[in-house]
Amino acid sequence: MTTHAPSAPPRRRGAYRPPAPIGGRGPLRHSPRHRLTVVAFLTPAIVILTVFVAWPMVSALRLSFTDASGFGREKFVGLENYARVFTDPDIVSAMGNTALYALLFTPIAIALALAFALLLNNPLLPLRGLFRTALFTPFIVSLAVAAFAWSYLLDPQIGLLNYWLRGLGIQLGNVLQDPTLAMPAVVLVAVWKSFGFYMVIFLAGLQDIPTSLYEAARVDGASAWQRFRSITFPMLGNTMGFVVIVALIAALQAFDQIYVMTGGGPYGTTQTIVMEIYQSGFRKLELGFASALSYVLLLITLVLSLTQFLFFSRREKDAA
Amino acid sequence: MMKRSLSVLATVGAAALLLAGCSGSSGTASDGPAEITFWHGYTEADGKVLDQIVADFNASQQKYKITTETKTWAVIDDTLLPALSSKEGPQIVAMPAERMPVYADRGAFADLSDFYASSDSNTADLVPQAVDMIKVGGTPYGVPTGFVPLAMFYNKALFASAGITEAPTTWDAWVADAKKLTVDENGDGTPEQYGVAIPDHATVANGLWPSLLLSGGGQIVDGDKAVIDSPENAKTIQYWTDAITKDKISPTGLDGIAADQLFSSGKAAMHVGGPWMASIAKDNNIDYGIAAIPAGPAEQAASAIGVAMGVTESADDAQRAGAEAFFTYFFQKDVATQWSLASGWPPLRTDIPLSDVSSNPVVAALSEIAPTGRALLPGVVNGTDVISDIDELTQKSVAGGDVTELLSTAQSKIQQAIE
C-alpha cells in the first residue's frame, strides 16, 4: 500500500495567497542593492519625521524641565513645572473643563453618528447620497470658520438664531457668555461639525457586516432591536473602538473652536488644557511650563487611548 | 549599482542638510548698509505713512537700510516668539505697549537706557506716560509710536433725536443720558437701542474698566502691591453694575468687538474706544462726536492705549545702532507731527502745539483730551493675567456676584500674578 501525499495545488502567478500572520512571514533575504533602495526611499520620510516630529518632541521634553521663555538663558528647574501642573488652580480648572468637554462631546457625537449611519445605511431611504454629503459637509469646513459662523448666529444682538427665536417669544440670551450654557454651546457646535466624519466611518463598518447574518436573524424572527443588539453592535466593535479613540483625542485637543467662540470664557468656564498651553507658551512666554503641560496632556491621552484599545481588543476577543 | 545607491543616499542627506541650513538669518552684509527688518501692525493709511517715513529715513543716510513687514498686531504677538527663538526674528518690532513688558522681562528686547540718556535721541520731550508703559523695573525697553487715552464716541443723530445737545461730562449725567437713549420699543425687556455699549470683558486694549476705576479714585496695582480691593473700587464697580443691570443702559456679556459693532450699527448711542472708531463710524455713515470719558467722583481719567517699538535681542551692534538712528529720526519734530496727522493719534512729543495738528479733527479732538490719559499697568510684566482677573471681576459682578467677595478674590489673584 502506498500512501499518497495530497498533491499541492498548482501555483499560478497572481494566485491568492493568505495574508501574512501578524509578525510577518519570517526573514526575507534581499540583495544589498534592494536594501539600499528601500533605505533610499525611506530616508526622506525618516528625515522629515525626525526634523518635524521626533526632534520637537525631544526638545519639548527637555524644555519641560527648564524655565525657558524662548529667549535668553534657560535654567534647569527639575520637576517644578510638572508639580505646578497639578497645583495651579487655573490648570486644575482647565483639566476639569477638558474632561467635561470630552464627556459631553464623545458620547453625543458617537451616538448621533451611529444613529445617522444606521438610518443612511438603509437602501430604501431616498436621496441617501445627498443626505450623507450634507451631514459630512460641516466636517470639511474649517473649524475656525464654523466657529465664527456660529458665534454670529448666536450673537444676542445681531444673531440670526436669536432673531428667529425672539420671533417665537424665546429669549436665548447671550449663550456664549453664560457660564452655564457656554460649554454645552461649544460642545454642540463641535458635535455638529464632526459627527458626519464618524458617521462615514460607521457606514463603512456597517457595510462590512454580511447581509446573510441579518437574513438568518429575520428568518429566526428577530426584531430590529434584537438584530442591532446581537449583530450590528458586536460586529461594529472595531469601528466603535476606532471612533471612540479618535473622538476622545479630538475632544482632549479642543482649541481653535473654543478660542474663536469664547476665548476660554466666560471667566475660564470653557478654558481647556490646550488653551492653557497656548496661553502659557505664547501669551505668558513660559515655554518650559507649556511643554510640561503638553507632556501631561500627551500622557493622559495615551493612557485613555490604551485603556480603550485594551477594552475593545478584549471585547473583540470575547466575541470571537 | 552600490555606487548609485550610495549617491541616492548622499543626495537625500545633502537635501536634508540644505533644508536644515535654510534657517540662516539675514544678518549684516560685510559691506554696504546694515540690513534691518521692521515688523509693524499698522495696516491702514497709518501703515503707508509709516512705510514712507522708513523710506525717507533710508534715503536720508547710507549706513542702514530698514525693510518693513506689515502684519496684524495679533500676528506679531503670535509669531514673534517662534521667529526670535529660531533667530529669524525682526530687529525692530512694534507691538501693543502692554505686551512689551512680558517680552522684555523674558529677554526679547534690548535695554534702551543709554539711548534715552543720549541728548541727541529726541526723547527728552516724549509724553512721560507713554514711556512708562514700556519700562520694566525702571528700565526702558522700547520707544512709543502711539499713546492715546480712550475716548467717548457718541452718535450725534441719536443724541439729537433724544433732545441731548452736549456730551455728558460726569458719571451721573452719562447714566442719565444713557437712560434717555435706551429704547425698548416693543417692551419685551430687550432694548432695540442702548444708551451706551459697556463691554464687561475683553475690552479694547482692556482699558474701559480700569478707566472707570481711576475716575472713581481707585487703582489696580500700586508698585508691587495689588490694591484692587479698595472701597473706592467697590463703589465704582457697584455703580456701573447697577447702571448696566438695573437701568439696562448697556447689554451684558459684551466684549470689545461686540461693543464696536453695536455702536457702528447704530444700536448704541455712546461707546468708549480708540482713534480707529473714527474710521469705523465713518465707514458706517455714523455722524459721530468725540469727548473725554465723563469724570467720576475723584477725577477725569482714562486708561491709555499705547503702541511701542523695541530693538530685539537678535540685532547685532550695527543693526541696533541703525534702529536707534531710526528712532531718533522718527522723533524729530516734523516727522512726529507728520506721523500724528497720518495715524490719527495725538503727538508723541509734548512740545508739538495743538495748532500743528488741527488740520486733522480727530487728532485735534483726541489731543485735547490727551491729558486724561494714564498708562495701563505700567511695568507690570504679567499684565495679561491681571487683565483677565479684572475681566472675571466685571463679568461676575454684572452677572449678579457680590462685589465685596469678587474684589477680595481679585485682590489675591492679582497679587499672585504680579509677584
TrEMBL record, chain A:
Query: What cellular component terms from Gene Ontology apply here?
Result: plasma membrane
Name the domain of life: Bacteria
Q: Which intervals of the chain are annotated as region Disordered?
A: 1-29
According to its UniProt record, where is this protein located? Cell membrane
User: Which part of the chain is the ABC transmembrane type-1 domain?
Assistant: 95-308
Bilayer-crossing residues are 36-58, 99-121, 133-153, 181-204, 235-255, 292-312
What Gene3D superfamilies does its record include?
A: MetI-like (1.10.3720.10)
Membrane-topology annotation of the record: Multi-pass membrane protein
**Would the keyword Isomerase be found if you checked this record's keyword annotation?**
no
Q: Does the keyword Cell membrane apply?
A: yes
- Annotated signal sequence range: none
Q: Which UniProt keywords apply?
A: Cell membrane, Membrane, Sugar transport, Transmembrane, Transmembrane helix, Transport
Using the UniProt record, give the first listed, main subcellular location.
Answer: membrane
One biological process term from GO is:
transmembrane transport
Write the protein's name: ABC-type sugar transport systems, permease components
The taxonomic lineage of its organism, from the top, reads: Bacteria, Bacillati, Actinomycetota, Actinomycetes, Micrococcales
UniProtKB/TrEMBL annotation, chain B:
Kindly state which keywords UniProt assigns to this record, in alphabetical order: Signal, Sugar transport, Transport
Name the record gives this protein: ABC-type sugar transport system, periplasmic component
The organism of origin for this protein: Microbacterium testaceum (strain StLB037)
The record's section on PROSITE patterns has: PROKAR_LIPOPROTEIN
Would the keyword Transport turn up in this protein's UniProt record?
A: yes
Q: Which family does it belong to?
A: Belongs to the bacterial solute-binding protein 1 family.
Check the UniProt entry and state the signal peptide residues, or none.
1-28
| Gene Ontology MF terms | maltose binding
Query: Which GO biological process annotations does it have?
Result: maltodextrin transmembrane transport; maltose transport
InterPro entries to which the protein is assigned, alphabetical = SBP
Q: Which domain of life is it from?
A: Bacteria
Q: Which GO terms describe its cellular component?
A: ATP-binding cassette (ABC) transporter complex, substrate-binding subunit-containing
Q: Does the keyword Transport apply?
A: yes
